[in-house]
Amino acid sequence: NGDDNVIAFSYSLNPFPSYHANRNTARINFLNGTASSTGSNPKEVAHAIIMFLSFGFILPVGMLFARYLKRWKDKKLTDVPIWFFYHRIFQYSGYALSIVGFAVIIASTQQEGNPHFSNSVSGFHKEIGLLVMILGFIQVVLAFFRPHPPSNPETKKPKIRVLWELQHHWTGRLALIFAVIVIFGGIKEIGGGYGWYIGYGFYVGIF
């Protein structure tokens, strides 16, 4: 009769036969062939993708550059060590991307009349996510105002440089640990199945 029909369906992202934990609905008009999703909020999906790219990939890779490329201290790009060149690009771009993802979910929940940090938003995802953003902000600001090391590698580092390095290393590690927790929580928020948890756990293990 030309009316839209709401179809409920479930699926699994696991390549093997498994429980279909992912659910969604779609509105289909069989007369004119149009279809639209009535399930997942596109902005929530965008938030999930952006934040995974940021805290799940770009920022961790930037940390790996700092950890494993320092052995090539003599290799330089634009007059700075190659490890620092890539570390800086990945960290700044990764955090900038996370700001976009953070703004997307704030705007989405505000439009729905359900402020993101209100008591009506369930779970720990939002609180720990905010903590990760704050830790990232601290890293960016203090990296910009960092005390530089001595030009002569044999010269003893000033105490303020030593303290800054301790802060930078441990704040970064804490941000990464909490980011992993937040991403696991995000999988729960979007209704990801067991395959998502296993896949992301395996991904984290590789890092």
Q: What does this entry show, briefly?
A:
With 207 residues, this protein is mostly helical.
Radius of gyration: 22 Å
**How far apart are the first and last residues' alpha carbons, in Å?**
55 Å
Question: Helix amount, in percent?
Answer: 55-70%
Structure summary, number of beta strands: 5
* Spans where pLDDT lies below 50 across 5 or more residues: none
SS-derived structural category = mainly alpha
Count of helical stretches = 5
Major sheet attributes: 3 strands, antiparallel
Tell me, what's the shape?
A: elongated
Average pLDDT number: 81
Which strand order does the major sheet show? 1-2-3
**β content, as a range?**
5-15%
Helix-strand string = EEEHEEHHHH
Explain this structure to me?
- This protein is mainly α and 207 residues long.
- It contains five helices and five strands, in the order βββαββαααα.
- The chain has helices at residues 42-68, 82-111, 125-144, 159-189, 194-206; strands at residues 5-11, 22-29, 34-37, 76-77, 80-81.
- The strands form two sheets. A three-stranded antiparallel sheet has the order 1-2-3, with no helix packed on it.
- The longest helix is centred in the C-terminal third of the chain and has 31 residues, at 159-189.
- The radius of gyration is 22 Å and the shape is elongated.
- The protein starts with a strand and ends with a helix.
- The model has no long low-confidence stretch (mean pLDDT 81).
